[in-house]
Design brief:
- The structure holds three protein chains of three kinds.
- By secondary structure, chain A is of the alpha/beta class.
- Chain A is 28% helix and 23% strand.
- Chain A folds into two domains: 133 residues, NADH:ubiquinone oxidoreductase Nqo5 subunit (Beta Polymerase, domain 2, 2-Layer Sandwich), CATH 3.30.460.80; 44 residues, no CATH class.
- Chain A is built from five helices and nine strands, in the order H-E-E-H-E-E-E-E-H-E-E-E-H-H.
- A five-stranded mixed sheet of chain A has the order 1-2-5-4-3. In chain A, strands 6-7 form a two-stranded parallel sheet. Chain A has a two-stranded antiparallel ribbon with strand order 8-9.
- The N and C termini of chain A lie far apart (80 Å).
- Chain B is α+β, with helices and mostly antiparallel strands.
- In chain B, strand 7 and strand 8 form a beta hairpin.
- In chain C, 16% of the residues are buried.
- Classes of the chains: A alpha/beta, B alpha+beta, C alpha+beta.
- At the A-C interface, helix 5 of A face strand 2 and strand 3 of C.
Chain lengths: 190, 391, 173
């Protein structure tokens, strides 16, 4: 199914440059990688074509590999006779300000999913009707699910890791015991 | 659409210059984070024009616990309590999905008894979750009686689960490779006894609530989501089946051993109201309870003695790759996208596509034109659990 | 009248026949429902358990508060590593030379001296992962669910304290 779909995509939308990623392990899922700039055209073709349509967008999941970011679109076709599923990947090499076209006009389900991708990874989507954070508060700094994310020390005056709740004395019990022992030995020597 | 409210433009009357400058505005109401009818901490900003809703904007994130980030630092086994806490009212189904994803990548063969017990426990959990949905939905609409009736029977299910797994709500029962504990024969007898009682009770609910004229007037023709709307927004589960489309992952994309079982998929046929309205979504859930009882009875017949846990390495490490696994949960279709790196003890990325998240995105489409009371009925009929929406 | 282009709600006007049939259906369905509810006055046993005078007997696998039998603990720290929320704090040191090596109740030798074993029960999520990996089964779940304290620090249970060790005989079989 994937190989046929790759050929169809490349013949209909050549700028997508679809590539079939065979899974390195046979138990994992295969996927198709396409170019980031062609995602809107490809989405509308995928929804409306006659050979292999996909009428539902189920999930948009971002993955942060350290050199690049990937956005996976998980599509499905709900049909009682010919159901099918697809994982469509888009590679984004710009980690500072990754950017993609929004596919909300084609699949309205993308509304909340893209907002979550923006919230967690910082991927901004052009022409999104309501482009703001969804799960984190609207004035949160940073993008939590990136691998190099360090939470800010405080948020509007509230401490993020308050000392009295971190159970430091219990965690460092053995370090403190050693320090006490060393201090006692020093005291007994001198 | 011609309706009683269309009386046409009124003639402009000016008593004095002041009334010429009178304007009316939309009223902003917060169906706020604390609300008895939003099933959790969901904030919906409603803009109303007198009693009719003009826009509804959901604001999420009040229960966001960064479960996806936490799971990147835990062992594969330690993620299971986190996954439990997603949809805390149907925890067994959540655990099954995650455990299936890990087992698919590992390639473990789960023993037959464990697979059958997994189905039985998942269906019991489905009954429990639908009872909760039924009780709280009736409570939202003002019916105080069915709530406690439903919770009485849900309590019986929770007691059964406590005997076998140790906890009533957040079980940590489905383990990678099988199940934690086995069921003894007298626990299985109690399950059979529960099934008989539940069948009687489901008939009682049908008489008490489903056909009650007040309930029908409140929910029929309200919050209509057509099949095309459901495809647009990615809705699944009772929402899609209530609209009339017969799509259930247990039959259309079988997983586990569901292909050996004989059960129907109820859809909303418009017996009262139109397919896709609140009444049909509700009746799909009630009929699914009856189907689940059928599945549990067949499961009890097919069970044979055996082990419930396969041999799994002490430290689980998955090969490089990713997998997207879907299961049918009481609220819709749950999907988990698990990305693993070679030789790591924890997932590289675990993305949870929760059904309630996609259903909440349908609220702005359904709301305009409804009265506020109808809007409360629509929100309740989607059956949201905020733990899943916000993760 | 409608300045905001809000779609108007759709209601149907009915005929006289609809009025009377609706009235009849309303009365009959409500009466059926009320008969079901009325039967609860005499025909159904009450299911409420009058807590705290009556307490339910919990099943034996119930996962309530943790208890650790430190005299049997071999300080392997498996429980601390398995905990998803890191609520177990363990510290141990080598036995002084020439000390006697005791054995646990299932025969394993205790080679380390346990100096700290604290579980923060407020952080604990009662998942049971720590009890399954304990090799000597000294860490178990009891059936105690009534252990609320006035301060959060009071929820940290130090299992090496002498008064907690005295509880061992009551809990460990």
């Amino acid at each position: 199914m994937h190989k046929e779909l790759v050929d169809l995509i490349n013949s209909n939308i050549p700028e997508a440059k679809a590539v079939f990623n065979e899974a390195t392990d046979p138990k994992a899922d295969a996927s198709i990688t396409v170019e980031a700039s062609s995602i809107l055209k490809l989405a509308s073709w995928l929804r409306t074509n006659d050979h292999m349509p996909f009428n539902v967008l189920q999930c948009i999941s971002g993955v942060d590999y350290l050199e690049y970011m990937e956005v996976c679109y998980i599509l499905a076709h709900f049909d009682l006779n010919t159901p099918r599923e697809l994982i469509l990947k888009v590679k984004l090499t710009d980690r500072v300000n990754p950017n993609l076209d929004s596919i909300v006009e084609v699949y309205p389900a993308a509304d909340f999913q893209e907002r979550e991708c923006y919230d967690m990874f910082g991927v901004s989507f052009n022409n999104h009707p309501d482009h703001r954070r969804i799960l984190c508060p609207d004035d949160w700094k940073g993008f939590p699910l990136r691998k190099d994310y360090v939470p800010a020390k405080d948020y509007n005056g509230m401490l993020v890791y308050p000392d009295n709740k971190m159970n430091f004395e219990d965690r460092e019990f053995i370090v403190r015991q050693n320090m006490i022992k060393k201090a006692q030995e020093k005291a007994s020597e001198s | 659409m011609q309706s009683r409210w269309d009386i046409g433009e009124p003639e402009p009357r000016t008593i004095n210059k002041a009334t010429e400058q009178l304007k009316s505005e939309l009223l902003t109401l917060n169906m706020g984070p604390q609300h008895p009818a939003t099933h959790g901490v969901l904030r919906i900003e409603i803009w109303t024009d007198s009693e009719v809703v003009a826009h509804a904007i959901p604001h999420l994130g009040y229960l966001h616990r960064c479960m996806e980030k936490h799971s990147e630092n835990m062992d594969y086994r330690a993620v299971i309590p986190f996954v439990d806490r997603l949809d805390y009212l149907a925890a067994m189904n959540m655990e099954w999905n995650y455990v299936m994803a890990v087992e698919k990548m590992l390639g473990t063969e789960v023993p037959r008894r464990a697979e059958l017990l997994r189905i039985m426990v998942a269906e019991l959990q489905r009954i429990g979750s639908h009872l909760m949905a039924f009780g709280t939905y009736a409570l939202d609409l003002g019916a105080f009686t069915p709530f406690l009736y439903a919770f009485d029977y849900r309590e019986k299910i929770l007691r059964l689960f406590e005997e076998v797994s140790g906890a009533r709500l957040l079980y940590n029962y489905y383990w990678i490779g099988g199940l934690w504990n086995d069921w003894t024969d007298d626990q299985l007898d109690r399950v059979a006894h529960f099934c008989d009682e539940m069948e009687e009770e489901a008939k009682k609910y049908h008489e008490l609530v489903s056909m009650n004229k007040i309930f029908v007037e409140r929910t029929a023709n309200v919050g209509v989501m057509s099949v095309q709307d459901c495809f647009d927004f990615g809705a699944t589960g009772p929402v899609l089946r209530g609209a009339g489309f017969k799509w259930d992952l247990r039959k259309n994309k079988t997983y586990g051993l569901y292909n050996e079982f004989d059960f129907d998929i109820p859809i909303g046929t418009g017996e009262q109201g139109v397919p896709g309205d609140c009444w049909n979504r509700y009746i799909v859930r009630m009929k699914e309870v009856v189907e689940s009882i059928k599945i549990i009875r067949q499961c009890l017949e097919k069970l044979e003695p055996g082990s419930v846990m396969a041999k799994v390495p002490k430290i689980i490490k998955l090969p490089k790759g990713e997998v997207y696994v879907r299961t049918e949960c009481p609220r819709g279709e749950l999907g988990m996208h698990l990305v693993a790196q070679e030789g790591e003890k924890s997932p590289y990325r675990l993305k949870v596509k929760s059904p309630c998240f996609t259903h909440v995105s349908m609220l702005p489409r359904v709301a305009p034109g409804q009265m506020i009371a109808d809007f409360v009925a629509s929100v309740g009929s989607i059956d949201i659990v905020l733990g899943e929406v916000d993760r | 009248m409608n300045n905001f282009n809000t779609p108007a709600p759709h209601y149907e006007t009915g005929s006289v026949k609809d009025y009377f049939s609706g009235l009849y259906k309303g009365i009959t369905t409500t009466a059926k429902g009320m008969w079901i509810t009325f039967k609860y006055v005499w025909a159904v046993k009450p299911v409420s358990i009058e807590y705290p005078e009556v307490r339910e007997v919990l099943p034996e696998r119930s996962r309530m508060r943790l208890f650790n039998d430190v005299l049997n603990c071999i300080s392997c720290t498996q429980c601390a590593m398995a905990c998803p929320v890191d609520c177990i704090y363990i510290a141990s040191e080598k036995l002084p030379e020439g000390a006697e090596i005791k054995k646990t109740s299932n025969g394993q030798p205790i080679r380390l001296k346990l100096t700290q074993f604290v579980i923060d029960e407020a952080l604990c999520c009662y998942c049971g992962l720590c009890t399954t990996v304990c090799p000597t089964e000294c860490l178990t779940h009891t059936h105690d669910y009534e252990f609320s304290q006035y301060t959060i620090d009071g929820m940290k249970y130090d299992y090496l304290a002498p008064d907690v060790i005295a509880w061992r005989d009551r809990i460990v079989k």
